[in-house]
Amino acid sequence: MATNISPICFIPFLIFLLFGALVQAIPTNNHGTDGSNIASRSIKVDLKTNPNYVPNGVAAYAHALKKWSSKTPGELAESLAAMGGSMFGELGATSVKGDREFLSSVGFGTPFQFLDVYLDTGSSDVWVYSSLTQAEDVGNHSTWVIAHSKTATPVENGTWIVQYSDGSAAYGKVFTDSINLGDVIIDKATIEAAISVSDEFISDEDIDGIFGLAYSLPNRASPQQPTVMSALLPLLSQPLFTIDLRHNSSNGAYTFGYIDGTRFLSDSGEHVHYTPLANGSTFWQFEFVSVHIGGTNDVHNDSFSAIADTGTSLMLLHSEVAKLYYDAVPGAQYNYTTSGGIWTYPCHTLPALPDFELGFANGFVVTVPGRYMNYSVFPYAEDTCVGGLQVIPDDDPQILGDVFLKSVYAVFDAGEAQIGFAKKDLD
Ligand SMILES: *[C@@H]1O[C@H](CO)[C@@H](O)[C@H](O)[C@H]1NC(C)=O
Ligand SMILES: *[C@@H]1O[C@H](CO)[C@@H](O)[C@H](O)[C@H]1NC(C)=O
Ligand SMILES: *[C@@H]1O[C@H](CO)[C@@H](O)[C@H](O)[C@H]1NC(C)=O
Ligand SMILES: *[C@@H]1O[C@H](CO)[C@@H](O)[C@H](O)[C@H]1NC(C)=O
Ligand SMILES: *[C@@H]1O[C@H](CO)[C@@H](O)[C@H](O)[C@H]1NC(C)=O
Ligand SMILES: *[C@@H]1O[C@H](CO)[C@@H](O)[C@H](O)[C@H]1NC(C)=O
Ligand SMILES: *[C@@H]1O[C@H](CO)[C@@H](O)[C@H](O)[C@H]1NC(C)=O
């Protein structure tokens, strides 16, 4: 674990044993639109009445242009440059394997070679399967063929090795090349080409790489290279990105450089509620102050700290909070083993799992609906299910993974060092 970069290195081993790559990070495609939507879409934008919603006219207009206009990319680039030159874009996120992963299609090299990667707010390396990856590790994964890119440049003596909190790992050589992230083009970005990856990645055929977006964490390239995140932020019309993961759906999206008021309930007066990041944090780490379960079991603590991590499927909270939740679940048990423990409950004797609510100092409350709290079946006991909330040791920061993030619209605002949440329609 010498190279471990994650805060979640002490997660009970059993969880990983059971689910392998599932607990660690993950995220596809832009969805085409047909002209018939233009009218209704424009009307919706015009009717926006939320007094708290501050539209970014230039970004919104340019976004609409990109989406709807018949201009060629070159003409668009000219129009956008005339409007200030900054970039923004949208990238689809598709749920696979029951929300275990959310995949996005990102372009690498010139011309762009598109690979399915997951965007991981809990790490900083951007690595992909490549033409350097040894044949036995490649399997059916798509690879970045370095020789097919006119702009790929090796970093002299550049190597990288990453180990994630679940024990999965990868290493390889370092290059610089162009990246297309939802139409935001990052030139000379640090791209880590895999030579070898661990079994967790080999067996996960959906993922061709990981795209780290941690707040300000260095990557694992040697000699040290700038992170893609640090190269991305100055290019954006606003130094932020947003996440709208969607349960069991391909309609999720990341936006870069702008907040998409159509992805949360801005029409109903809802707005983004911000919480500052913890001072000195290299992760997207912040405080929450209370937990409410089923409207009855409450716990308050002014200094609960958590990291928002798309790279973790579950919510990993301290034992006291997890116990409080499962106290409200009939038949729930903490199944101890020599290597750790896991909260389970009978799959079918419940009417429904209770909602899980998390409160912030700004007064905002995020509700994770009970149906999102039922994570999977427990393979080692009959009619037993595993909850989407599990325990992390009290000394470690708590992790709010995809179970939490898919319940909200989230703004990762690097410029103001804050994270914001807003209510959205859930499926
Ligand atoms: C690749 O996919 C094919 C068809 O889905 C499957 O039969 C084969 O086992 C896969 N190969 C590997 C190495 O996983
Ligand atoms: C790369 O490695 C070689 C051989 O070890 C060394 O001579 C050279 O100075 C290194 N270059 C850089 C930029 O570190
Ligand atoms: C996911 O969506 C598919 C089709 O939209 C549906 O058949 C399936 O039951 C859904 N699964 C869950 C877990 O909601
Ligand atoms: C960070 O430090 C400043 C100055 O000490 C303090 O005012 C601010 O409240 C701190 N922010 C957080 C989120 O702790
Ligand atoms: C509040 O939470 C922090 C961090 O989780 C913990 O260290 C502290 O003991 C808690 N305080 C109380 C009174 O529970
Ligand atoms: C785990 O807990 C469930 C109750 O949630 C129980 O029915 C099951 O027998 C336990 N399994 C093991 C392996 O301990
Ligand atoms: C939880 O999900 C499993 C399938 O993953 C399903 O069989 C079970 O009925 C669900 N239980 C609850 C309480 O939603």
Automatic annotation (TrEMBL):
Signal peptide residue numbers: 1-25
Keyword annotations: Aspartyl protease, Hydrolase, Protease, Signal
Gene Ontology terms describing biological process: proteolysis
The keyword Ion transport is annotated on this UniProt entry: no
Domain Peptidase A1: 102-422
Gene3D superfamilies in alphabetical order: Acid Proteases
GO MF entries: aspartic-type endopeptidase activity
Pfam families assigned to the protein according to its UniProt record, in alphabetical order: Asp (PF00026)
Family the entry assigns: Belongs to the peptidase A1 family.
Name of this protein: Aspartic peptidase domain-containing protein
Lineage of the species this protein comes from: Eukaryota, Fungi, Dikarya, Ascomycota, Pezizomycotina
